[in-house]
Amino acid sequence: MGVYDMTTAIDFILKSTGYSKLDMVGYSLGTTMSLACLSDRPEYNSKINKLVLMAPTSRLKSSGMPLKIVKKYSNIVNIFLDRFNFFPYTNDPDTTYRLIRRMCTNQSAFKYCRQFIDFAQGIILPINNDTILDIVSEFPQPMSSKTLKHMLQLLTSGRFTHYDYGPYGNMLHYHTKTAPDYDLSRITAPTYVIYSKNDTLVHPLDVKWLINQLPNIKDVHYIDKIPFGHLSFSLSPMMKEVVNMYITNKLLDNNL
């Protein structure tokens, strides 16, 4: 996705608008794609005016409880992912999510739907019941099993590497028996990083590691004064004040 989808999207936008550069804002897996794109295709750095990374996901060495559980059972998860091209697997996603929403409207089942969100988030979000129902009606969307296996590889290895095809496959793809690390020193676009103390999926220690690898960090916004987890970047009622205004100010400041 980083090498093919992201580069195609950048070229399409620049061609359609006539601009020579664009601002790129990524969140979670979107930041992983951005890092992969600008590392493997460094010529695209010249097309990025400002790069904003929210909850940047690269190395997953110091993950919190949700991912620690996934890591513990990684062999089982891998076997499961090998059986399907997409996960969660469903022949009819729209019908499946309608049924999940209907199930969660049941008072006795709702608390478990709420607990699922809180567990993924790591903290209790101050959001109303209707929002919870909206979330379980859409999240998580089916995703390529290969993408999930790649994230699992990052989790188990504690490194930020290309997809591991095994020794033979790696020789074909990379001409080396082991999957190489992404060369983050090649990401020269002006970079702004936003991360939070309470993020249990992308641990602050891993973000600090990433910051130290990137050569053109312009500013870092660390959210530690209020409860703000990984999903807060899209769901928190404080999103405007804590994140959006910061991003807007940075993107509109031509002196940066």
UniProtKB/TrEMBL annotation:
Matches recorded under Pfam families: Abhydrolase_1 (PF00561)
Listed A to Z, the keywords are:
Lipid degradation, Lipid metabolism
Q: Where in this chain does the record put each AB hydrolase-1 domain?
A: 4-234
The reply to whether S-adenosyl-L-methionine figures as a keyword in the UniProt entry is no
Can you supply a Gene Ontology BP term from the record?
lipid catabolic process
What domain of life does the native source organism fall in? Eukaryota
Alphabetized InterPro entries for the sequence: AB_hydrolase_1, AB_hydrolase_fold
Name this polypeptide is given: Lipase 1
* Phylogenetic placement of the source organism: Eukaryota, Metazoa, Ecdysozoa, Arthropoda, Hexapoda
Supply the gene name.
Lip1_3
